[in-house]
Design goal:
The complex is a heterodimer. By secondary structure, chain A is mainly α. Chain A has 13 helices and two strands. Chain A has a two-stranded antiparallel sheet with strand order 1-2. Chain B is mostly helical. Classes of the chains: A mainly alpha, B mainly alpha. The interface between A and B is large, with 97 and 96 residues.
């Protein structure tokens, strides 16, 4: 046996290396094929078909009819679509900005030396992320009850404010939905920032202290610049997430699709599965895709700008 | 001088503690409140000031949940969907990641970049045709509609490739090839045992994603018998009579399993769910 193994390379080195290559190639294609086959069926084809459907009139059953840009005209002249777009943008700012700022502050606090119970704080702050979006939306939906016994209205009452119509007022709905997003994601971002902060070497701070830097200066000139890649990452992901907001508004405002809280994806869902208007719904999906590309590019552009 | 520094130090420390304590309380409070409501009668909930202590209605509220939705059926469906999809994803992604990391074949780089590009596409773009395909396949109200597309995971392939590249030595793979090992045996006997930590990370990310997913199950599951727990929970609030004690009871018991697993494995959970994000 041992002899055979030693001899083997001498017998046919060329042939064996050739078959090795083919073997590698065949298995290589074979092993990556499940992804590509499934993606072709459930990913690529649907995307291409969406672009096709965007130019058809179709309710899912009868004949398709080519209508040119009519679906896009229909969507872009629908005030409810613009309302859904502006709602999405407002809730993006309301939900994302406080989330990132408070996330950095909490990460900074967690990262300060000599903190006891660090892991207890970490676990509690992260826990909302493990809660499902549906559960979050249901719980907060009940807390944001418009009656005066709703928890948030009771709290407002303690401070002498009148109850707010969370379910139906223009800003009430948006604040309620943004709070849900904020609560579920702030801990997640905190932990990500914490990982970034822990990667900053302590010597930098020590050197700054020797040079007489204040806390504010340390944050401005060491922490923020070194955290920049992670900040850019979190802004990027939370922006994409916010543009796809769906579950919270659907649970909170329900089948009424109230215009105070309708988002672009909710509008799309309504067009497709309530109105069975697959053409306009596909046109909405394409418009959303373009908006995401534009905003993502702006993000990347700004990120590159600051990174210099 | 030194006393002053000490004092200032302790004040800022107290501030840090207060901040973290408040943040922790606010993070836990809705979960606690969910439990309080799940054990109280609706009339106690709709009272000023509302109840803040657990009440005696634990069993009654949950019985009402069982009368409204098929709670355990939905939990079972969710378990089935999340488990099968996770196992499938681990296998498909590690196999593909292994090919990208350790095998030589033409067009490898292009194919890998193609996978990365698919990560940028928002999932809603293909939503309607996907629904049509599922209808044509006859998979409406069938868990396969969620499991089969669910195993497509570009991030998983990326993650596995990076891990295999830096943790499975090339020399080992080459030596195994010279010994005449088939590529699948190199994958199964050499690579898989080494990448268990990467499996754990991906499994947690995937399982949680599938357990919490809502939009796609909502689109393809229309009959109660096929509902996952998230879709079933929505059925609670769709009722004509709003019994908040019952609603929050269902929501609480649907949330508890994942919270318990999280508390038991909190280090692994937190590192898996955030490292994956940071490193990519």
């Amino acid at each position: 046996m041992a002899q055979l193994q030693v001899k083997k390379p001498h017998l046919a080195p060329k042939r064996s290396s050739f078959s090795e290559q083919t073997k590698d190639a065949i298995s290589g294609y074979l092993y990556v094929s499940p992804f590509f086959i499934l993606f072709a069926i459930f990913g690529l084809f649907p995307i291409l078909f969406s672009f096709y459907l965007g130019f058809q009139r179709w309710n899912g059953l009868g004949e398709m009819e080519f209508v040119g840009f009519r679906n896009f005209q229909l969507i872009l002249s629908d005030p409810l679509f613009w309302k859904s777009l502006s709602n999405t943008m407002i809730m993006w700012i309301l939900g994302t900005l406080p989330q990132l700022i408070i996330g950095i502050i909490l990460a900074y606090a967690l990262n300060s030396a000599l903190i006891k119970f660090k892991s207890v704080f970490r676990v509690s702050i992260f826990m909302p992320y493990v809660t499902s979006t549906v559960a979050v939306a249901i719980v907060f939906g009940i807390m944001f009850n418009s009656q005066e016994f709703g928890l948030f209205n009771v709290i407002l009452g303690l401070f002498g404010f009148d109850p707010v119509n969370w379910g139906t007022s223009e800003w009430g709905v948006k604040v309620a939905i943004s709070t849900m997003v904020f609560w579920r994601w702030v801990g997640y971002n905190t932990i990500i920032y914490l990982a970034g902060l822990q990667a900053i070497p302590n010597e930098l701070y020590e050197a700054a202290v020797i040079d007489g830097a204040t806390l504010r200066q340390k944050i401005m000139f060491i922490t923020i610049p070194l955290l920049r890649p992670i900040i850019i990452f979190t802004v990027f992901t939370s922006t994409i997430g916010a543009l796809q907001l769906f579950t919270e508004p659907l649970i909170f405002i329900g089948r009424s699709y109230r215009e105070e809280g309708i988002t672009v994806v909710l509008y799309l869902y309504r067009e497709a599965f309530s109105n069975m208007a697959f053409g306009p719904a596909s046109a909405t999906a394409i418009i959303l895709f373009l908006i995401i590309i534009v905003i993502a590019s702006i993000n990347v552009f700004i990120a590159n700008r600051i990174a210099r | 001088m030194s006393e002053k520094v000490y004092k200032k130090f302790s004040i800022s420390r107290a501030f840090v503690y207060a901040l973290l304590a408040i943040a922790s309380l606010l993070s836990i409070f809705p979960l606690y409140w969910m439990f309080v409501m799940a054990t109280n009668h609706n009339s106690v909930i709709n009272k000023v000031p509302p109840a803040i202590l657990p009440g005696p209605q634990l069993v009654t509220n949950f019985t009402n949940v069982l009368n409204t939705i098929d709670f355990f059926g939905a939990i079972w469906n969710s378990l089935l969907v999340a488990t099968i999809t996770t196992i499938g994803t681990l296998f498909i992604c590690s196999l593909a990641g292994f090919a990208f990391a350790k095998l030589r074949f033409k067009g490898k780089e292009v194919l890998f970049i193609a996978i990365l590009v698919t990560m940028m596409i928002p999932p809603q773009l293909g939503l309607i045709p996907q629904y049509i395909i599922i209808t044509k396949l006859g998979w409406l109200n069938d868990l396969r509609a969620i499991i089969v597309p669910g195993v497509i995971d570009a991030f998983g392939i990326f993650w596995m490739r990076q891990y295999i590249k830096s943790n499975v030595p090339d020399e080992l793979v080459e030596a195994a090839k010279i010994d005449g090992c088939s590529t699948f045996r190199i994958y199964w006997n050499i690579t898989v045992p080494v990448i268990v930590p990467a499996f754990a990370t991906l499994a947690i990310i995937k399982f949680m994603y599938m357990w919490n997913d809502f939009l796609w199950p909502l689109v393809v599951l229309r009959e109660q018998s096929s509902f996952t727990i998230q879709v079933a929970l929505r059925g609670l609030i769709d009722n004509y009579v709003r019994d908040n004690g019952m609603i929050l009871s269902g929501t609480f018991w649907a949330t508890v399993p994942l919270i318990i697993v999280f508390l038991l494995l909190n280090r692994l959970f937190i590192s898996s769910l955030t490292e994956g994000a940071v490193k990519s």
